[in-house]
Amino acid sequence: MNPTVKLLQAIGSPLAPDALERVPDDDEAPGLYAHARENKIGLLYLEALNKHGRLGGLQSEYDKGYFRYSETVVTAARLSQVIGSMGVEHAIFKFIKPYPSTPSDVDALFLGPINDYEEAVRGLLAGGYCKIGEAPHQVVVYDLRGGRDNIDVRTKDGKEGGIYYIDLYKEVGASHVIYMDKRKFRKAPTKANLNGNEFETLKPETEVAIAIAHSMLPEQLYTLADYYTTIHYLAASSREGIDDLVSVIRENNIVLAATCSLKIVASLHEAAHGFVPEQVLEALSRLTTKGPSWEKFGENGFTMPYRCSMLTLSRFLLEKMRESAFRRSLARQLMAMMDPRFGGRIVDDLIFRRKRETY
Q: How far is residue 232's CA from residue 189's CA, in Å, rounded to a whole number?
């Protein structure tokens, strides 16, 4: 049986509560854990094993995962409280999952004007945070409660991220390209409370939409973390919740990406649990774009993570061209790439992303 299907059956689905979960034996559990980590759901898989009392030799990984999870939540909450004390509108985003997870770092989006962003960054660097890198739309900082001696200053090809690393975004972008317009999120902020730690975040339907766009650009890989983010949202949603998600998808011009995502969800759920959930079919029916065929996805044994084709990526970019913020940012990207050094790095990065197995 394909390891992806084994993994899905071991974890189960909130849209298939009556399905019999398949508990891995001791010999295959470590291999499935490696596959789970490739798909950003290592802790979720370990939680499933723990529920069945089958952690065995993975107990230490489970303990480390939960320590990292709980401490990263503290980092996010502390950051949100500090920024909030400055009176700056923001959200911790791409962070909260509807299942236990170990994010590689904390992402904070500044929702207001650029002056607020610059003022907040200066304030953070003057009080308890250290700058370790910068990109066109973000500054990478380190929470000094982790200790100066432990800072990894590599921000590319080496830094693994971790509990104390933070990306401060002035736009939801990759390089110069803005793939989600934050001005459409002004009504989306809400509060979250994890383990008694409160911070500002975005509404769940907005987080799902961002995850969908993020899997297409910049990551160009769809992981099982994206799958579980989607099905947990749909499982908790009424008809109105599906309406809200579809509305955010349409407003942000990611209909193609969302259609592709939901088709992957449908294929995986059917392969693992024997049926396509009604909520997935309902969401797909609201998105009229036909999208590409996913026959090849099934033919490859539902191997995950899944890399979208260059044709699909091109169609995604074409749909995003409806947005003025995206068009302007793409023009800036093309202008910047006229510098041979910068352009060379972008080409190298694109080649790397088309070859890598995970991120």
A: 20
Helix, strand or coil for residue 120? helix
Rounded Cα–Cα distance for residues 7 and 67 (Å): 23
- pLDDT, mean over the chain: 90
Closest to 27 in 3D by CA, of 5, 53, 58: 58
What tens digit of pLDDT does each residue of 39-98 get?
Answer: 999 999 999 999 989 999 999 999 999 999 999 999 999 999 999 999 999 999 999 899
Cα-trace Rg, the chain: 20
- Cβ pair 234, 277 in contact under 8 A: yes
Handedness of CA 276, 289, 236, 102 (dihedral sign): positive
**132 contacts 151 by C-beta, under 8 angstroms:** yes
Q: What is the DSSP letter of 18?
A: T
How far apart CA 27 and CA 32 sit, in angstroms, is: 10
* CA–CA dist 316, 314 (Å, integer): 5
Q: Which distant-in-sequence residues (6+ apart) come within 8 Å of 54 by Cβ?
A: 23, 24, 26, 29
> Who contacts 245 (Cβ-Cβ below 8 Å, separation ≥6)?
205, 208, 209, 233, 237, 283
Q: What is the DSSP string of 268-292?
A: HHHHHHSS--HHHHHHHHH------
Do 152 and 158 form a contact (C-beta atoms < 8 A)?
A: yes
Query: Burial level of 235, CB count in 10 A (0-12/13-18/19+)?
Result: middle
Contacts of 293 (CB under 8 A, 6+ apart): none
pTM for the predicted model, two decimal places: 0.92
- CA-to-CA separations, 175 to 329, 332, 342, in angstroms, rounded: 9, 10, 10
Rounded to whole angstroms, how far apart are CA atoms 348 and 342? 10
Q: For residue range 126-185, what is the model confidence (pLDDT) as tens digits?
A: 999 999 989 999 999 999 998 888 887 665 544 556 799 999 999 999 999 999 999 999
Instruction: Please report the sign of the dihedral spanned by the C-alpha atoms of residue 342, residue 131, residue 189, residue 239.
Output: positive
